[in-house]
Specification:
Layout (H helix, E strand, L loop, with lengths): L16 H8 L6 H12 L3 H5 L5 H18 L3 H7 L5 H17 L1 H16 L10 H5 L5
Helix pairs in contact: 2-4, 2-7, 4-6, 4-7, 5-6, 6-7
């Protein structure tokens, strides 16, 4: 698997690299890991995908996350609904159908969905621009 990890970033001090790897590489075999990758691709925070926020940017990210979770992990809509903010399973089913329709008809969604899928498939994470290595230093116990 071709994964980009903090190990190759020369700017991260050696002492902090294990912590960066632990806290910034999601496990894409879980719903949380897929949500993190999707959030990165759609440029939203993972917490927003779990929230009841109905803004377009967040809703599109949520649709994509639900589609990837269903297709990759083969979990039921009821399980996804419990994990994503205790929604009704019919809401998740509708979101899944929306994602299929958007992928076919809306090129901006299709591009970001492809990016999210690539992040999940290759298990790549991007360290957010506002995160500094000083923040990672707090994880290191002297």
């Amino acid at each position: 698997m071709n994964a980009i990890s903090p190990w190759i970033y020369l700017g991260i001090p050696n002492l902090i690299r294990p912590y960066a790897l632990k806290y910034y590489i999601p496990d894409v075999s879980t719903i949380d890991g897929i949500v993190k990758c999707t959030a990165q691709a759609f440029e939203v925070e993972p917490e927003q995908i779990y929230s009841k926020n109905r803004r377009s940017k967040v809703s599109l990210a949520r649709h994509a996350a639900i589609k990837i979770i269903r297709d990759r992990l083969k979990v039921t809509f009821a399980e996804i609904s419990k994990h994503l903010g205790d929604r009704h399973h019919a809401t998740i089913l509708h979101s899944y159908k929306q994602a299929n329709d958007l992928e076919a008809a809306y090129p901006p969604f299709k591009a970001k969905y492809a990016k999210a899928l690539k992040l999940v498939e290759e298990n790549i994470t991007i360290i957010y621009r506002d995160t500094t290595y000083r923040d990672l230093g707090d994880l290191v116990q002297d």
